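Subject: mismatched residue count in predicted assembly?

I count 224 residues in my input, but I want to confirm that the predicted structure covers every chain. Input:
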Amino acid sequence: SQTIHQWPATLVQPVGSPLSLECTVEGTSNPNLYWYRQAAGRGLQLLFYSVGIGQISSEVPQNLSASRPQDRQFILSSKKLLLSDSGFYLCARSDTGQGDIQYFGAGTRLSVL
Amino acid sequence: GENVEQHPSTLSVQEGDSAVIKCTYSDSASNYFPWYKQELGKGPQLIIDIRSNVGEKKDQRIAVTLNKTAKHFSLHITETQPEDSAVYFCAASRGYSTLTFGKGTMLLVSP
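Triage response: the counts match. Full output below for your records.
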């Protein structure tokens, strides 16, 4: 089973507070992992992707960072949230030998107030 | 880089009608074209994909066509049902690289 776990499902945070969103995957080794943000219910913006432990590529400069401490774990973080960080955050995976086929998790709805 | 345009942004049809969503891409080296369906509050679900070595692929009521010369591809849904209502995204990639997504089409199927 190719399962992607994201938590929490919903999060409300004050401006200036830190953020940590976690994504873990099951059923595969050495997956490629991705973080996307979706604003206003439409459009998927790639934020970060990782091809292995400790390897992070950033697509868009911003207030966020990502880390991959374990093969099947991908973390999205911020030291100080901005109002503009609100959105729907999605983790995705692609598997060895199928590098371009991506599967998405259920997402985290973040509201920064 | 790759640019993917998707039309229309909203599509309303009656139950039983067909629906067609079209996408164009800019990078002639792109060779993988997936389509995703996203229901409200959920993550996108891969529903069908096509590679550049074929022109058409079908899966029950869903089909995708690809015109490499014109650099466009389309999603066709026949005999639409209310549960087909969702936002649909197209995407393109060169293969073993990141996906570039269209902005999405909200499909509304009225009973």
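Chain A has a mean pLDDT of 91. Marking this ticket as 'not a bug'.
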